Each structure stands twice: as C-alpha cells, then as structure tokens.
Amino acid sequence: MSPAQALPAVLLIEPQFVLRRTIVTVARELDLVAFQEATNIDRALALLGSRRFAGIVLDMGEGGDAMTLLDELRKGAFACGSRIPVILMSSEPGRPADGAIGPLQPLSVLRKPFKIGALLESVRSMALYEMQKPH
C-alpha cells in the first residue's frame, strides 16, 4: 500500500495481551488495517466517542458490556456510525444465541480458539468493504 493511501482504522477490543499483539502484528505485516487497541469496553468507549473507525473486532468475553456496546453502536451512538462492520470473537461454548446476536448484524462470529487466518480473512473483507465505499 502506498504511503498516500492510509490503511483503514479498525478498533480491536481484546483483553488478552498475547492474542491482541499477534493480531495487530500480523495485520501490520500484511498491510491489512491499522488496529487501534483497547483492552476493555471502557477504553473502547472513549475511543468510539472521539474517532471514526472502518470496523470493530470485539471480544464477547466482556459479557453484557460487549452486548451493550454493540447495541449502542447499532443505534448510532458513536462517531463511526451505526452500519460499521463488526467481527465478534467468543470463547463461550456453542454459538451465541442468534436471537441476541442476529439483530446486531455482525460481519462474522469467530469461536476461540480460532486460526489467525480465519480472523484475518474476516478483517480483509472488512477492509475491502471500507475501501470500496464512496467517500
């Protein structure tokens, strides 16, 4: 990617340091996206209130707070708009209840542990969507 062409900014909300650093490092090496990191929902809220992002990668391990954030996002409460693509990561056994997740329209839901390639493919789709949007 040329220096004049900025990478899409994506917010990564993930409490696990090693996973977070792995995701960010590989995405950077592939010139995929520019991740902004948040270790928890409170830090993410501060960033969402002040910056626009092309997408969000959200760990559902934050429980009800993660669902609340996603619900508020879809209601247009943040600078990035309500239709921003979101990738959910979850370590909960089984699939999240479609009744709760479905209306929140995630781009994808990944179950931990997942292969980094699966996440990066979803992030690549998110980045392509952002680059193809008329500005």
UniProtKB/TrEMBL annotation:
<feature type="domain" description="Response regulatory">
    <location>
        <begin position="9"/>
        <end position="127"/>
    </location>
</feature>
<keyword id="KW-0597">Phosphoprotein</keyword>
<dbReference type="InterPro" id="IPR011006">
    <property type="entry name" value="CheY-like_superfamily"/>
</dbReference>
<feature type="modified residue" description="4-aspartylphosphate">
    <location>
        <position position="59"/>
    </location>
</feature>
<dbReference type="InterPro" id="IPR001789">
    <property type="entry name" value="Sig_transdc_resp-reg_receiver"/>
</dbReference>
<dbReference type="GO" id="GO:0000160">
    <property type="term" value="P:phosphorelay signal transduction system"/>
</dbReference>
<protein>
    <submittedName>
        <fullName>Response regulator</fullName>
    </submittedName>
</protein>
